[in-house]
Design brief:
- The structure holds two protein chains of two kinds.
- Chain A contains twelve helices and 22 strands.
- Chain A is an alpha/beta fold.
- Chain A is globular.
- In chain A, 44% of the residues are buried.
- The model of chain A has no long low-confidence stretch (mean pLDDT 96).
- By secondary structure, chain B is an alpha/beta fold.
- Chain B folds into three domains: 17-24 and 242-377, 3-Layer(bba) Sandwich (FAD/NAD(P)-binding domain); 33-129, Orthogonal Bundle (Fumarate Reductase Iron-sulfur Protein, Chain B, domain 2), CATH 1.10.1060.10; 144-239 and 383-443, FAD/NAD(P)-binding domain (3-Layer(bba) Sandwich).
- Helix content of chain B is 35%, strand content 18%.
- In chain B, the strands form five sheets. Chain B has a five-stranded parallel beta sheet with strand order 3-2-1-4-17, with helices on both faces. In chain B, strands 6-13-7-8-9 form a five-stranded parallel beta sheet.
- The A-B interface holds A 68-70, 348-352, 354-355, 367, 371, 391-392 and B 34, 37-38, 41-42, 44-50, 105-106, 108-109.
C-alpha cells in the first residue's frame, strides 16, 4: 500500500484529504466523527470576530442540480460563517487538536479588513494549537456584502495586505483561500504570495442560482419568495477548479507555491488529478455532505491502489506531475493529426455520433440503411464530439496518424515535426522559424 | 371456504377472494414518478431511433421519453396519442419484447432495454387520468362513415375520422365496445376495467356513435352500409375458431380458450368462475399462454400447454413463455392431441409426440397421457361472417394500400384484414391509416 502521509507546509496528516471549511467542520462533534472515520485533516468552519455571532437564514440554505437518478452534481449554499460564539469554537478546537495530534487542524478565519481585527483574533487561534490558518477570502454570498470573503479576494491589494498582517501576528502557516469569482486567478494568488502566504487553497464557491421556481418566479433556494445568489460547489465545478489550480501551478509568479485543491473532489480519481496539477492536499465538502464521512475509505484506498499500480510510493512523487503538460493553446502541436475510429463490434447503433456530427459538427460520419456508422476520414477534423456523446466507453477512439501518411482531409502529408501557431503561416504575428 | 387446488373437476371458488384479487392485479405495476424519471434517463435519444421503426404505429418514442424526463408526462402522452389513440392499452398489452424494446439499442448493449412500455403507460395514464381529451375535432365535413366492429382497429379508425370532421357510427355486435381489448386481453394486463375506461375517454372526441348489438349479416348488411354511408370500414376481427381434430373433443370440459378468456374478463366475481384441477391448453400462441396463466391464477393445480411443434415455433414470445413458466405452467412441446378420454366429461388427454421433417409434422407413435378435466383449445381464430363479394387473401379480407378492399368505398383493417401481425398495435395502425385514406378519398 502506498504511503499517503502528507506533509503540507510542515503540517503532517495521515492522508491528503482534508474536510473543507464548511458545515461538516462546524463543531467538535462532527470533527471527532470525521477523524474517527479517517479523515486526514479539517479546516474548521470559518471563525468571525468576537462578539455576537452572525445569524443564518431560517429557511433553505442549499439548492441542488441533479443528474440521472437524482445524483447530486452541483450544490449551492447561502450559509454564512459559523454562527456559534468564537470562544466556543476555540475551546472545541483546542480539545480536538489535543486528542488528535496526528491530524491537521486548520482554523479558517474571516474578520473585517482592519489590522486590529486580525491582530485581535490571531493570538487566541494560536492558543488552540491549530496547525495553521486559512484566510477566507472566498465566500461569495452574504459576508461579501459586508466587505469580507470574496469582496477581499477580488482585490489583490487587500489580499496582500491582510496576508501580511497575518504573517506578522501569527507564526504558523498561513493559507489564503481564493475566490473563483474573478477574471484571472493568477493575480490574487500572486498577491497572496507577495503578502507572504505559505500556500493558497482554491476554489471557494462560484456565484450561482441553481434554478428558478416557475410557479413563484423565485430563485432557488427561496426564502419567503426571494432568492439570493449562493456559492456553487460539487462535482459540477471540478473542471473550473482544475483549470484555476493549473494556472497558479504554472504561472511564473506563483510556480511552486503549495496549493490545497478544492472543488468537486468526489472520488480518489478527482484527488489524484488535483494532486497531479500541483496540489499538496485536497479539501472535500460536497461529497461528504452528500454521502457522509465514510467516503474517506474509498478516497484513501482508491488513491493508494492507483499509486501502487503506477509504482508511486509517496504523494510527493505525484504532486505536479501534470503541470508541465499544461500549456497555452498557441503551443499545441498543429502537426498532430488524429481521426475518429468507430469500433463496429462495440457499436450499439444509437446514432448519437451521427446526429452530433451531422447536425452540429463536420458531417464526417456516414450512416447506412442498416445503421452502420463510419467515419469519413476526408471530413473528420478529430474534434472528439462523437467520442464525447457515444454512450459506449471505448467504442470510438481518436487514432493519431503516423508521420508520412497523407491526411485525406487536406491531402497533405503528416509531418513528423512539432509546429505550433506561433510559426504558422496563417498567423499574422508569426515569428520566423528559427 | 375456498375449495382449493385439489378439488376434482371443473369447479368455482378454488381460491379465496383475497387470493384471486391478488392474483389478478397488474402484471406490471405502474411506474412511480421517480422510477419513471430513472427509466427515462436511460433513453439515449437515438438518431432515427430503431424503436420507432419497430413500432407498428410509429410512436415518436425518444421524444415522449424525453418529455417525461423533462417533467411533462402529459405532453409525452399527447405525443403517443397522436400516433396511437389506444396507446394506453398498447402500453399494457404490446409484446414490447418483440417490438420496440427488442429494437432498443440498450437491449443490444446490455440486454436491458429502456422500459418503453412502462414509460408509455406512465405518460398515457397521466394524461388520461387528467380526464380531458387531448384532441379537438376539425370542422364538420358533412360526411358519414360506418365502422363495423368496435375493436382496436375500429376505434382507432373512428377516432381519426371523427377528429378529421367526419361523423362516425360504429356497429358492434357484442354488448360492449372494445373488441379483444374488452373480451380477449389477459386480465392481469388490463386491470380496473381499463378497456371500457379507455373507450369512454376515446369517445370524448365527439362525433362517434356506438351501436351495440348491431351484427353484420343480421341487423345490418354491407350493401346497406355502402348505401347509407359515404364510406365503410370493416374491423370485424376473427370471430371463428379453428376446429381441433381429435377423438372426444365433444366431451364436457373441452372448450375454446377465447371463450374461457372472455368469461374471465367479463366475470363480476372471479370466485364464481369454474376452472379445472388439471387443465391442458392446446396451442402455442398468446391465447394459449393467457388461458394457461389465467387457469393457474384461478387456482388450477396443474396447467399444461401442449404445443405440436418446438418452442421456437410458438407464437407466444419467449417472454410470454417464461411468464407462463413463472406462474407454474408446464410447457410440453412436440405433442399433438389424439384423443380426449372420459366418461361424458373429460378426465384425460392422450397426446402423441411429433417430429418435423422438411416442415411436415408427423406423429412418432409414442404417446403421453395427461390428466385433464378441462381442455382449452387455442389453436387459432379464423375469419367468420365476412360479407359476400369481398375478395379474400387466403382466409382474410384482401386489402391493398391503406386497407382498401376489392369493393369501392369499403376499407378493412385489424385481424380480419390480410397482412400485418394480429396485434392490438397493428390493428390500431391499420385503423388509423385507413381513416387517413378514407379522409383523403372523401374530401378529394
Amino acid at each position: 500500500m502506498a504511503d499517503l502521509t502528507t506533509n503540507f507546509l510542515g503540517i503532517s496528516s495521515p492522508n491528503p484529504y482534508w474536510l473543507a471549511s464548511a458545515p461538516p467542520t462546524d463543531k467538535e462533534y462532527n470533527v471527532r466523527r470525521a477523524f474517527e472515520a479517517g479523515w486526514g485533516g479539517v479546516v474548521w468552519k470559518t471563525l468571525g470576530s468576537e462578539g455576537p455571532p452572525v445569524v443564518n437564514v431560517n429557511g433553505p440554505r442549499y439548492g441542488a442540480i441533479y443528474g440521472a437518478d437524482r445524483r447530486l452534481l452541483g450544490l449551492n449554499n447561502i450559509e454564512l460563517i459559523t454562527d456559534r460564539p468564537l470562544e466556543v469554537n476555540l475551546e472545541e478546537m483546542a480539545r480536538v487538536k489535543a486528542d488528535y495530534p496526528d491530524r491537521a487542524l486548520i482554523a479558517s478565519i474571516m474578520v473585517p479588513c482592519e489590522e486590529e481585527a486580525w491582530k485581535a483574533i490571531l493570538p487566541s487561534v494560536a492558543e488552540t494549537g491549530a496547525d495553521g490558518i486559512e484566510l477566507n477570502f472566498g465566500c461569495p454570498h452574504g459576508m461579501s456584502e459586508r466587505g469580507m470573503g470574496s469582496a477581499v479576494g477580488q482585490v489583490p491589494e487587500y489580499i496582500e495586505m491582510v496576508t501580511r498582517w497575518c504573517k506578522q501576528y501569527y507564526d504558523r502557516p498561513v493559507i489564503v483561500k481564493l475566490t473563483p469569482n474573478i477574471t484571472d486567478i493568477r493575480k490574487p494568488a500572486a498577491a497572496a504570495r507577495n503578502g507572504g502566504a505559505d500556500a493558497v487553497s482554491l476554489i471557494n464557491t462560484i456565484n450561482s442560482i441553481t434554478s428558478v421556481n416557475l410557479d413563484t418566479f423565485s430563485p432557488e433556494p427561496s426564502i419567503d419568495g426571494k432568492g439570493s445568489h449562493g456559492g456553487y460547489c460539487g462535482p459540477a465545478v471540478k473542471p473550473i477548479a482544475l483549470s484555476m489550480v493549473s494556472e497558479i501551478a504554472r504561472a511564473e509568479a506563483t510556480h511552486g507555491m503549495p496549493i490545497s485543491g478544492i472543488g468537486g473532489v468526489t472520488t480518489w480519481r478527482d484527488a489524484a488529478e488535483f494532486i497531479s496539477l500541483g496540489c499538496g492536499t485536497v479539501q472535500v465538502c460536497t461529497a461528504a455532505m452528500t454521502y457522509g464521512f465514510k467516503i474517506i475509505d474509498e478516497l484513501t484506498a482508491g488513491l493508494s491502489e492507483w499509486m501502487d499500480e503506477k509504482g508511486y510510493t509517496s504523494i510527493d512523487e505525484v504532486i505536479g506531475r501534470a503541470v508541465p503538460n499544461v500549456t497555452d493553446w498557441q503551443y499545441l502541436n498543429l502537426n498532430y493529426i488524429a481521426k475518429a475510429k468507430i469500433d463496429q463490434d462495440q457499436c450499439i447503433k444509437c446514432g448519437r455520433c451521427y446526429a452530433a456530427c451531422e447536425d452540429t459538427s463536420h458531417q464526417a460520419i456516414s450512416m447506412s440503411d442498416d445503421r452502420v456508422f463510419e467515419v469519413m476520414d476526408d471530413e473528420c477534423v478529430a474534434c472528439n464530439l462523437c467520442v464525447d456523446v457515444c454512450p459506449v466507453e471505448g467504442c470510438i477512439s481518436m487514432v493519431p496518424m503516423a508521420a508520412g501518411e497523407i491526411d485525406p482531409r487536406t491531402g497533405k502529408k503528416v509531418q513528423p515535426t512539432y509546429a505550433n501557431w506561433t510559426t504558422h503561416p496563417n498567423n499574422p504575428m508569426a515569428k520566423a522559424a528559427e | 371456504m375456498a375449495q382449493g387446488q385439489m378439488a376434482p373437476g371443473i369447479v368455482a371458488g378454488r381460491l379465496s377472494s383475497d387470493e384471486l384479487t391478488s392474483n389478478f392485479t397488474d402484471l406490471h405495476p405502474p411506474l412511480a414518478p421517480h422510477e419513471a424519471a430513472v427509466a427515462a434517463d436511460r433513453c439515449y435519444f437515438c438518431y432515427d431511433a430503431p424503436c420507432v421503426t419497430a413500432c407498428p404505429t410509429d410512436i415518436d418514442i425518444p421524444l415522449f421519453i424525453r418529455q417525461i424526463q423533462a417533467g411533462q408526462p402529459q405532453a409525452a402522452g399527447r405525443t403517443i396519442f397522436q400516433q396511437n389513440i389506444l396507446g394506453g392499452m398498447c402500453a399494457r398489452v404490446c409484446p414490447t419484447e418483440t417490438l420496440c424494446e427488442e429494437a432498443c439499442v440498450r437491449e443490444t448493449a446490455e440486454g436491458k432495454p429502456v422500459e418503453i412500455g412502462r414509460l408509455q403507460r406512465f405518460a398515457t395514464d397521466d394524461l388520461m387520468s387528467a380526464g380531458a381529451h387531448p384532441f379537438e375535432r376539425a370542422a364538420s365535413t358533412g360526411k358519414t362513415v360506418a365502422v363495423v366492429g368496435a375493436g382496436p382497429a375500429g376505434l382507432a379508425c373512428a377516432h381519426r375520422l371523427a377528429m378529421l370532421g367526419h361523423d362516425v357510427v360504429i356497429h358492434e355486435g357484442k354488448p360492449k365496445p372494445g373488441g379483444l381489448n374488452e373480451y380477449g386481453i389477459a386480465a392481469y394486463k388490463s386491470t380496473n376495467n381499463f378497456a371500457q375506461a379507455e373507450v369512454d375517454w376515446l369517445l370524448k372526441i365527439g362525433g362517434i356513435t356506438v351501436e351495440t348489438g348491431s351484427v353484420l349479416g343480421e341487423s345490418i348488411s354491407l350493401d346497406g352500409l355502402v348505401e347509407n354511408y359515404d364510406a365503410v370500414f370493416l374491423s370485424i376481427g376473427l370471430a371463428g375458431v379453428n376446429a381441433l381434430h381429435a377423438d372426444g373433443v365433444d366431451k364436457d370440459g373441452v372448450r375454446d380458450a377465447v371463450d374461457f378468456i372472455s368469461d374471465v374478463r367479463q366475470a363480476g366475481d372471479l370466485a364464481q368462475l369454474p376452472v379445472g384441477r388439471n387443465v391442458v391448453v392446446i396451442g402455442g400462441g398468446m391465447t394459449a399462454v393467457d388461458a394457461a396463466i389465467k387457469s393457474k391464477l384461478l387456482g388450477a393445480e396443474n396447467v399444461t400447454i401442449a404445443y405440436r411443434r418446438g418452442r421456437d415455433a410458438m407464437g407466444a414470445s419467449r417472454y410470454e413463455q417464461d411468464l407462463a413458466a413463472s406462474h407454474g405452467v408446464q410447457i410440453l412441446t412436440n405433442v399433438q392431441p389424439v384423443a380426449v378420454r372420459g366418461n361424458g366429461a373429460a378426465t384425460e388427454i392422450e397426446l402423441e409426440y411429433t417430429s418435423s421433417q422438411n416442415g411436415q409434422l408427423t406423429g412418432t407413435g409414442e404417446m403421453v397421457r395427461l390428466r385433464a378435466d378441462q381442455v382449452l383449445k387455442a389453436i387459432g381464430q379464423t375469419l367468420e361472417g365476412a360479407p359476400e363479394g369481398l375478395k379474400l387473401d387466403g382466409n382474410k379480407i384482401a386489402v391493398s394500400g391503406a386497407g382498401r378492399t376489392s369493393v369501392a368505398g369499403v376499407w378493412a383493417g385489424g385481424d380480419c384484414a390480410a397482412g400485418g401481425e394480429d396485434l392490438t398495435v397493428t390493428a390500431v395502425a391499420e385503423g388509423r391509416d385507413a381513416a387517413m385514406d378514407i379522409h383523403a378519398t372523401l374530401v378529394s
